[in-house]
Request: fold
Amino acid sequence: MKYFKIKSHILLIGVLFMLPACSVFETKKVVDPNLPSQESVLTNATAVQLNELGVGLQSVMRNGIQNYRLVTGSIGREMYNLSSVELTWTTELLGTTNGGFSLTTGFNASYDDFSQTRRRAELFMRGANASTALNETQKNSIRGFCNTVEAYVMLKNLNMQYQNGIRISFTDLNTPGDLLKPGPFVSYDAALTEIKRLLDLGNTQLASAGTAFAFPMTTGWAGFSTPTTFSTFNRGLAAEVMMYQKDWNGMLTALGASFMNLSGPLTTGPVFTFSTTSGDIFNPLYQQKNTTSAPMVAQALFISQAEAGDTRVPAKVALRTTPRVLNGLTGAYDVYMYPTNTSPISILRNEELILMYAEAQIQLNTPTSLIAGAAALDVIRVASGLPTLAIAKPTVLGNQAALITEMLNQRRYSLFFEGHRWFDMRRYNLLSTLPNDLPTAKVYTQLIRPFAEVQWDAKNPQ
Reply:
């Protein structure tokens, strides 16, 4: 199977964990005499029910990726969504009208999707904790997986919200009357600390989880489908969190426990998979080349500023026979990273880990670490068809500031349209250097807090 086939009872359990419109953490009660209720899952789930919840959680991890990539790619000026049916992508999102974002637009759609995934991970873990069908080792495998997944989606929401912060605590499902009083929003730094704590906790749990997960792992996790190998993914995520915390030594320690391999394939890593199987979904970022309906186009400088011979450019964009034009924006190149509607989407891969390693070494700014950082960048450059820095840019060697610029540029091309450029430029205070192809455009620092969250707090004060 490419991913999995969703059966009716899995769908129902998914419905059990869907969120009502009034909040992103409430869980609607669904009663069906023929299928498991939420109460049965939370009190004494069977092994079969837990298996279904585990597979379902892996599925919903994919939700939100389309909106997340489109928003971060647009604000980071990597690409434009020239959608003729929803013009706000080229007006409000680019800051050209209404002073910016509107409460009626869908730019926070990924926030809801990621929050639902977070909630389902919490419910899956609670169900496992209360189940008599599992031993402690099996429960640890679920705990470690769920805490890692929660951290993964929390980091995505936090980076979108930035100084707005996020909620780091849920309500207690077993405490009557508390469901509408979630934890408060905390600062960006406090949220990073909590995300790192969850990853460390999850990693500790994975170390006591035996040799196999207590539920099926889908094909996208090939090579990372046991607690031990999944732990290397957890450590890669931890390194990313520490990158935002500027904990360079901590990053190197985490990367050493991850699946980073300076001499290994850059593509190694878990992926989201898609298929034509009934009940599954297509890759939501796939689009055909050179059609009138292909709305995702690359920002022109991505092509013109690339070094000659960089193989990443033709691997990520395709020249159109006729440029696409909308609202004053022109796209001569389609975004074309996924050749079919079932092409996988990378979750985290060796290429990104090596770039994080390079950044940490460069930031330590010792003669030895600068050499190590440059060598890591050369791994990326050579794999992309480019000469080493000693040949192409010898003056950057030993120069921290120049190496940081080079590192950011390599991240720009390696991680194009993967949700990094906006955040990279923000954390280096370089948002003002991003291009604006419209005279009234502006680059935003963060999204607004979802309106439903604001209403929720107003109706349910702490």
Residues 16-23+38-216 form one domain. Confidence is low (pLDDT under 50) at residues 1-36. The first strand starts at residue 79 and ends at 81. The radius of gyration is 22 Å.
